[in-house]
Amino acid sequence: MEKMLEIKKLEVSFRPAVGESVKILRGVNLSVGKNESLALAGESGSGKTVTARAVMKLLPNNMNFEKGEILIRDRNVMNLKEQEFRKIRGKDVSMIFQEPSSYLNPVFTAGSQVLEAVKGDGPGRKERTIKLLNEVGLKENVFYQYPHQLSGGMQQRVMIAMALINNPGLLIADEPTTALDVTTAYGIVELLKEMMEKHGLSMLFITHDISLAVNFANMIAVMYAGRIVELAGAGEILNSPLHPYTEMLVSCLPEKYKSGDKIKTIEGKVPDFRDLPKGCSFHPRCPYKKEICLREEPGEMKRGEGIVRCFKYGDFVEA
Ligand SMILES: Nc1ncnc2c1ncn2[C@@H]1O[C@H](COP(=O)(O)OP(=O)(O)OP(=O)(O)O)[C@@H](O)[C@H]1O
Ligand code: SF4
Ligand SMILES: [Mg+2]
What we know:
The chain is of the alpha/beta class. Helix content is 29%, strand content 24%. The chain has helices spanning 48-55, 82-85, 100-103, 110-117, 125-135, 152-164, 182-199, 210-216, 234-239, 244-251, 291-295, and strands at 3-14, 22-33, 37-41, 63-72, 75-76, 93-96, 170-174, 202-207, 219-224, 227-233, 301-303, 306-308. Strands 6-7-8-3-9-10-12-11 form an eight-stranded mixed beta sheet, with helices on both faces. Strands 2-1-4-5 form a four-stranded antiparallel beta sheet, with helices on one face. Helix 4 packs parallel to helix 6, helix 5 (125-135) crosses helix 6 and helix 6 runs parallel beside helix 7. The structure holds adenosine-5'-triphosphate, iron/sulfur cluster (SF4) and magnesium ion. Residues 244, 280, 282-283, 286, 288-289, 293, 298, 310-312 line the site of iron/sulfur cluster.
């Protein structure tokens, strides 16, 4: 299958004002095939947004690419200069962000901001923008409105129009529904599915909500402390998760509760990247840990279409 995105052994580090640099992404491998949707799921702080920003070459100034490759439509973009990458950003790959209100400029109308994103000067840009605003469920008058006149859901729809205006092959949606109420969020998810179908898009859908991931995507990558710990089909993640962390995420899903049950959470917290536990970084929270887990990091083991990193499935140590 043609790959729209391939990330190979990606390492990204953060340079604090004082002290040594800290690795955030620790060998991330991911790929998104043509017309495929891959969900990247994991708790807050696991490295999902850093992964997305690395692909868009929009890392904050205090973060560095260390190693690895990012291929967009088989082209390695790691060493491209900003001027070169600008031709790819928005055209081959586009992104919508967690908080639409922080990305829309309050002093320009929604329409002018979508228009501004259009690459090239061809005729009919305004008509195309209005048509796309209609397609994402907004009326023509939104073109002339300022962000503060729009609800959160409408702002996110404007962001979606902006991301789609140059017909990208791949869309990265970074928690596009976190700032929205449940009904509005549902509308945005359905809109994204519709846009995927209509525009033949491939999607990297980022979420901390495993049930949303399963609802949205064919494949799910579960991230923990800057690594993909399990990659599998949505059905497998839901019905037969392999990694203990995935198992816990799935056991916390509301549909697993009976009325009156105590709400489950995963005990402990995502480890601090500056002080990761030795061995498997999940071991302080893992009920299955054994001696090797405290010493060594599990390597990536193939399982069917996907992978798992856990010594429950063999003592394969990270190279
Ligand atoms: N600009 C930055 N400077 C320093 N550290 C950062 C910066 N951005 C992110 N980090 C750190 O990198 C780690 C991964 O952050 P990231 O934003 O990718 O998490 P996430 O999985 O997207 O979480 P969330 O679900 O809350 O959005 C976190 O520990 C975070 O504190
Ligand atoms: S490697 Fe060990 S500690 Fe890590 S998830 Fe697997 S069993 Fe648990
Ligand atoms: Mg994030």
